[in-house]
Amino acid sequence: MKLVLLSGGSGKRLWPLSNETRSKQFLKVLEREDGAMESMVQRVWRQLGASGLAGDAYIATGSNQAEMIRSQLGDVPMVLEPHRRDTFPAIALAAVYLYAIEGVSLQETIAVLPVDPFVEDRFFDRVADLDRVLHASGAPLALMGVKPLHPSEKYGYIVPKPAAASADLSSSDAWQLVGRFTEKPSEEEAKRLIAEGALWNCGVFAFRLGMLIDMLIEKQLPINYEELVRSYERMPKISFDYEVVEQADTVAVSEYDGYWKDLGTWNTLTEEIKTGVIGNGTKCGESTGSHIVNELGLPIVLLGLPNVIVSASPDGILVADKQKSPKVKEMVGSRDDEPMFEERLWGSYRVLDCNVSGESSLMKVGLIQMHAGKQLPYHAHRLRSETWTIASGEGALLLDGILRKMRAGDVVHIPAAAKHGMLALTDLTLVEVQIGADLSAEDVREMAWDGKDRASIGGGE
What's the pTM? Predict the structure, then answer.
């Protein structure tokens, strides 16, 4: 069995911590048993390793999330979407990659799941059981549904056909045939569905690789990986549920009766955050059930407000009643602000200030923090100049092919079109001031850093 983990998201539901480059699965707000903080994707990958499944797992994601995934998980297998579409194109691309590039057999079972479920370890044992469910049922698709804990309006429901009286649903390869699907019913309707044996749809399903490859051929879509990448923008923007699952004549479903939660909103996420304050903050005893999550240096003090979430980051500040917090996506969904904080392979970048400094010139001040041995890519800007001030640590600046060691207090001006990069010899912090007509990521041209240059200063990786 091969696993495909879908990593996407627009970064709106957990605003302001999440943004276009740092979706909810990358927020380090979950506490491990040893007290260290980890993200949802780090937790899931750790659980996959404990279940013996990580070696057969691939992450399907957009190119804008690739660097964040490598930063948190290391060099894990990824299939990168050249453009954001929907789950059907993403899964099709992953399937073609496995078939055409990895040489996976058409008889191999492919299990697909979100990259960020909050579950206990045995959840992944049930995912592995879907291989046997496919074989036992003979169905082209096998889903995993969660036994509901209560009638929820937030989830979709899988309604099985009535089970045979002799069916043993406790075994690992137990299954039922799906009768129908219902999306986010009212609470009263959810009660009726649960009485019929309905399960929460947790977005986990499996199929034989050959099934999807045959479907792509039938739809006259490429099964050559490079060709599919080139034509990816023309793929239908539709979910796998609508395009495949709900169109199938026969679908089997297997029940998982353990702990499962979608930590997609502040009210559900804070239920799993063990401490009431993360970052610089204080709350009084009357603020029961409230949480402060603060990424800013400024203190937050919370007085007399129970059951609220106060979250602050360089992208903004949220103060919300927890039960109303799911509406944050509606409130900020139309905003197209540039992310003010990004994690990168070499460290992080935080915007400190950004405004107009003249009629035709923009100004941005940023804080760059680099890990020792990491490299800020060698690059150039056509429409802006930069000034770097080293705040702490030591680094090696490569400016138009000339190496220069820099330490705390050093300042360098980088004119427009000048090629420049930095290698951190120690942990390094620098303040960057950009001035120009275009401060966007589009005005960046990367080039190779000559390995001989790095060797001459004792550079690391």
Answer: 0.84
